[in-house]
Write a structure and sequence with these properties.
alpha/beta; Dimethylsulfoxide Reductase, domain 2; Rossmann fold; 3 domains; six-stranded mixed beta barrel; 30% helix; globular
């Protein structure tokens, strides 16, 4: 997030797109609701009637995969009606005129045809956001998990630059992270092209810096993303994988392809706190400690680095992740530090944004990076003094169809996501009896009109089929989804949504298109009891 969580309550306008915030980020949602009660206007763009709509001034019921058209259409209205921030554009951006010309096709009428959102609502949403200088945009994987995910984010960044809603309190573009330490994992270089602090592996100066720190020669080659790894394993180009804290059999698209990839390996190691579906395929399973069983730091979605303290001992032979990694490294001939605080000290020496942090400084309260010196208070919001690379470019993005569109054989759009009660692949929450008693059964949401046309009743077991496979699942007839769209939560292994999702991916960052694929609905002759 560019801005702090506490600043949400001071926003005049909150634009939520591709985020079921109330169910997937309830703490953030509660801040949004407080802002709403103070008078903030909330705009929700989502294909489903999600709980946050209850607090929204506007619900833009967008067709899955048409986000660029909506955002570009809003931008055009803001430009046409003079709601843009001319001073910000002049002083802090470049490429405005060329980008403005790219908006020409995106009239409200054209956007309505692409998105299904009435033209009047497109214009009204643009006026609400464009008229505010304390507006925040919030998005999650409903924006990124598309073959055009990078362009989706770019379109939102253009909207922020157009209005100047950045670099001040209660503004910003704020991606909400999907799990509790995703931000920290990214910061610490759990990415194939960077060292800690997003320092590029193919930059000779960066390479030299880390070679001196670690005392070993390092490769400048950029590695593979996880989606590319699966394809490489299937093709025999990768012979071994070490999977840590991930359950790709459930969470990756096109499950049959994922299982085939893992079974094609010569050697698979899985390090996890439970024996997941992925771990069951491994030659070696390394039992890991959970967050309550180890010391260290987590960095949350607002870039706040916080201490994590051991509360209980891990069960059996489980060890904390750092001990396991350092012990493997030691046996391979390289002595690594296994004390979390000393690792953090090294981390802060190698990344200037953490240079001012220490365990002592974050003992009781976390600090937001950048924190470049021991006296620095941390940075709640970014870009107060401008942008690191100078002026921000406007970048034109064209509307494009999803990788898979509906046809006569597969006439429904499937979109996937999470619900309030389960978490990610369910490897933790589905072991809790109380949660299972309330939300332990998979389901597919289907609109009443579609269910009537197909002869499906609420609770019927039906088949949802795509070009990649099929699952049997109970129908939940509801107005939460529009006609022609169905929704399946991704938590349930016995009716795994990712059996049928599409593994096409964004060419820039290789994130798969989990949010849109074409399916068919086949009614069952037998109703559920």
């Amino acid at each position: 997030m560019t801005n702090a969580i506490s600043e949400i309550e001071g926003m005049e306008v909150i634009f939520i797109i591709g985020s079921n915030t109330k169910e997937t980020h309830p703490v953030i949602a509660n801040r949004m609701i407080k802002a709403y009660r103070k008078g903030a206007k909330i705009i929700v763009a989502d294909p489903r009637l999600i709980p946050m709509v209850k607090f929204a001034d506007m619900h833009l019921r967008i067709r899955p995969g048409s986000d660029i058209a909506l955002v570009n259409g809003m931008a055009r209205v803001i430009v046409d009606e003079g709601l843009l921030n001319k001073e910000f554009i002049r002083e802090k951006t470049e490429g405005f005129e060329a980008w403005k010309a790219s908006l020409e096709p995106f009239t409200p009428e054209y956007v309505e045809r692409l998105t299904g959102v009435p033209r009047e609502d497109v214009a009204r949403a643009a006026r609400i956001y464009g008229s505010s200088r304390r507006g925040g945009i919030f998005y999650t994987m409903g924006i990124t998990q598309h073959t055009c995910g990078t362009d989706n984010v770019t379109a939102l960044a253009n909207l922020v630059s157009l209005t100047g809603n950045i670099g001040r309190p209660s503004t910003g573009i704020n991606p909400l992270r999907g799990q509790n330490n995703v931000q920290g994992a990214s910061d610490a270089a759990c990415l194939p092209n960077v060292y800690p602090g997003y320092q590029k592996v193919d930059d000779p100066e960066v390479q030299k810096k880390f070679e001196l720190a670690w005392g070993r020669p390092l490769s400048p080659a950029v590695g593979m993303t996880s989606t590319i790894m699966m394809n490489a394993a299937t093709d025999g180009k990768i012979k071994a994988l070490y999977i840590m804290g991930e359950n790709p059999v459930i969470t990756d698209p096109n499950m049959h392809h994922t299982v085939k990839a893992l079974e094609s390996l010569d050697f698979l190691v899985v390090q996890d706190i439970f024996l997941t579906d992925t771990a069951r395929l491994a030659e070696v399973v390394l039992p890991a400690a959970c967050s309550f069983e180890k010391n260290g730091t987590f960095t949350n979605t607002e870039r706040k680095v916080q201490r994590v303290r051991k509360a209980v001992n891990p069960p059996g032979e489980a060890k904390d992740d750092l001990w396991i990694l350092s012990e493997i490294s030691r046996r391979l001939g390289y002595e690594m530090e296994a004390e979390p605080e000393k690792v953090f000290d090294e981390y802060s020496k190698l990344w200037p944004a953490l240079s001012g942090m220490s365990y002592l400084r974050i003992d009781r309260h976390g600090l937001n990076w950048p924190c470049p010196s021991p006296e620095h208070p941390g940075t709640p919001y970014l870009y107060k003094d401008g942008f690191p690379k100078g002026k921000v470019p406007f970048i034109s993005v064209a509307y494009q169809l999803p990788a898979e569109v509906c046809d006569d054989q597969y006439p429904f759009v499937l979109t996937t996501g999470r619900n309030l009660f389960q978490y990610h692949s369910g490897s933790m929450t589905r072991r809790v009896e109380q949660i299972e008693a309330h939300a332990g059964e998979p389901y597919v949401e289907i609109n009443p009109s579609d269910s009537e046309n197909l002869g499906i009743r609420n609770g019927d077991t039906i088949t949802v089929r795509s070009r990649r496979g099929e699952i049997s699942i109970k129908a939940r007839v509801t107005l939460r989804v529009s006609e022609g769209t169905v929704f399946i939560p991704m938590h349930y292994r016995e009716a795994a949504a990712n059996v049928i999702t599409n593994d096409a991916f964004d060419p820039h960052v290789k994130i798969p298109e989990l949010k849109v694929c074409a399916v068919n609905i086949i009614p069952s002759a037998v109703s559920a009891v």
